[in-house]
Amino acid sequence: MPNVSDYPPQEVERFRVVPAAYVVLRRGDEVLLQLREGTGYMDGRWACAAAGHVEAGEPVHDAAVREALEELGVVLRVRDLEPITTMHRTGAGGAAVDERVDWFFACRTWDREPRLQEPDKAADLRWWPLDGLPELTVPHERHVLDRWWSGELGPVEAYGFDPAQARAQSDAAAGR
């Protein structure tokens, strides 16, 4: 298998994507969301209660379980993670960090009561009905949750490549 050093630097940068795992805790027709604060990204918007980057050498399922423990104090089992969708998205900024692959999982079973574990990154934690999500929800996450609820979500979604989606994401990131 080739190593990164086998490729020219411009090729390594050109094909880099940032992987992330999202866990949607679901209770009936409600999902648990956190209000982002102090992160510098989408602060003041509601987001999936547990999400974060997949670390080098870490399987995505393990990342989802780890993020749920770190952010909510809940214990999940990999077997209880239900794939919702995989999203390929772009921030349209041209930088490697703008290119993302996100795995979304639902989970209906967990141990311990969810609570904010990182108060420096979130101001609130609340259950929301899937048909009544807050207006200020992170746009790409809102896209997934709305389409999931309506039954229109595909196994693979693209986000940010459409000019309207790119504008919504950019406006939300800028706090508009």
UniProtKB/TrEMBL annotation:
<dbReference type="InterPro" id="IPR015797">
    <property type="entry name" value="NUDIX_hydrolase-like_dom_sf"/>
</dbReference>
<dbReference type="GO" id="GO:0016787">
    <property type="term" value="F:hydrolase activity"/>
</dbReference>
<dbReference type="Pfam" id="PF00293">
    <property type="entry name" value="NUDIX"/>
</dbReference>
<keyword id="KW-0378">Hydrolase</keyword>
<protein>
    <submittedName>
        <fullName>ADP-ribose pyrophosphatase YjhB, NUDIX family</fullName>
    </submittedName>
</protein>
<dbReference type="InterPro" id="IPR000086">
    <property type="entry name" value="NUDIX_hydrolase_dom"/>
</dbReference>
<dbReference type="InterPro" id="IPR020084">
    <property type="entry name" value="NUDIX_hydrolase_CS"/>
</dbReference>
<feature type="domain" description="Nudix hydrolase">
    <location>
        <begin position="15"/>
        <end position="150"/>
    </location>
</feature>
